[in-house]
Design goal:
The structure is a single chain. The chain is of the alpha/beta class. It has two domains: 43-143 and 258-315, 3-Layer(aba) Sandwich (D-Maltodextrin-Binding Protein, domain 2), CATH 3.40.190; 146-247, D-Maltodextrin-Binding Protein, domain 2 (3-Layer(aba) Sandwich), CATH 3.40.190.120. 49% of the residues lie in helices and 16% in strands. The chain is built from 15 helices and ten strands. The protein has helices spanning 7-41, 53-68, 82-91, 101-108, 118-130, 152-157, 163-171, 188-192, 197-204, 218-224, 239-242, 266-271, 274-280, 288-299, 305-315; strands spanning 44-50, 72-80, 96-100, 134-136, 146-151, 183-186, 210-213, 230-234, 245-247, 260-265. The chain has a five-stranded mixed sheet. A three-stranded antiparallel sheet has the order 3-10-4. A two-stranded parallel sheet has the order 1-2. Helix 2 crosses helix 15, helix 4 (101-108) crosses helix 5 and helix 14 (288-299) crosses helix 15 (305-315).
């Protein structure tokens, strides 16, 4: 018996079979790669913060808290000022960061009327910003509002306790305790904000002789060393007490409240609703006393924001 082998037919059959196998493998690999991609992205959160001490600490608290809860965290803390962080959040460069209610109300939402009641400010910012796809979790009692500072000894000698006292001294021609001019040290952001120097001078009716722009945080050292008579600072900064400075009383209640709260995109909030419960554990500890202490550990004792954040979370059994 002679068997005839149809080479062309067999070859064609194998060709079809090989194409099916290859197609199957390609589809399988594609599905597998997609699954891997989704798996890598699932649980991944990018955390940002501003550049100054308190923000760096809050950023590290967020990073460590989320890592402890099993999230894959990308650390982008120390991005820049308020506008930089907000833009990063809106563009998706970061998923969350801590913002201050007063900044949200005045800077991001563009209102001219400062709010001095914490609950009112938070509620209005939270409700309005939700329309922008930004979710505000619960806020802490810590109110890191702007402040004008003097050296304690200078303020005592000139009997300046309030910003109104300062305005009267400048308008009356009282000589500056440092040189002949009343020079004000501030960072760039405060110098141009309506809820900063611009609005402050308008409300209190005075004007500094000169304004020196410095990086945020350097103002404390400049004031301590007597390079300027008055400087801008933050109410919860540990260097106020550590450098023997004093916060002048904002007797006309110009500065808005600045309660800190975690902000995140609506997309991230919907994907990880458990974030609200996670941050609810840390919010009760966010008050002026605790935050001032944490800031001092960095600015006066030289610890890193990560070290301070980790110690704080562990001491309070939060991680």
């Amino acid at each position: 018996m002679v068997f005839k082998f149809n080479y062309k037919k067999e070859r064609k059959g194998k060709s079809i079979m090989n194409k099916k196998v290859i197609s199957y493998l390609l589809v399988t690999l594609l599905i597998f790669s997609v699954c891997l991609s989704v798996g890598a992205a699932d649980g991944k959160i990018t955390v940002g913060s501003k550049q100054f001490t308190e923000q760096l600490i809050l950023g590290q608290i967020t990073v460590l808290l989320l890592e402890d809860r099993g999230f894959d965290v990308v650390d982008k803390t120390g991005l820049g000022g308020s506008s930089v962080c907000r833009l990063a959040l809106e563009s998706g460069e970061i998923d969350m960061y801590w913002e201050y209610t007063g900044t949200g109300w005045m800077t991001h939402l563009g209102h001219d009327n400062p709010l001095t009641d914490s609950e009112e400010c938070y509620k209005k910012v939270k409700d309005e910003d939700e329309n922008n796809g930004i979710i505000w979790l619960d806020y802490g009692e810590v109110n890191n509002t702007y402040t004008l500072m003097m050296r304690q000894k200078d303020a005592n000698e000139l009997e300046i306790k309030t910003i109104s006292d300062l305005a009267e001294a400048i308008n009356s021609g009282v000589e500056s305790p440092v040189g002949n001019e009343w020079v004000f040290a501030t960072d760039h952001e405060y110098s141009i904000r309506q809820d900063g120097l611009v609005g402050l001078e308008e409300l209190y009716g005075f004007q500094f002789d000169d304004v020196k722009i410095m990086q945020v945080g350097i103002t404390y050292g400049a004031l301590k060393e007597g390079k300027v008579p008055v400087a801008m600072g933050f109410a919860t900064d540990g260097r106020v007490e550590g450098f023997e400075l004093v916060n002048l009383v904002d007797d006309k209640q110009f500065h808005p409240v600045y309660n800190a709260a975690p902000c995140l995109t609506e997309e991230v909030y919907d994907k990880y609703p458990e974030l609200e419960e996670i941050f609810a554990t840390v919010i009760p500890y966010m008050d002026d006393a605790n935050m001032t202490k944490l800031n001092a550990l960095v600015d006066l004792e030289g610890k890193t924001p990560e070290e301070v954040a980790k110690e704080f979370l562990m001491e309070n059994d939060l991680i």
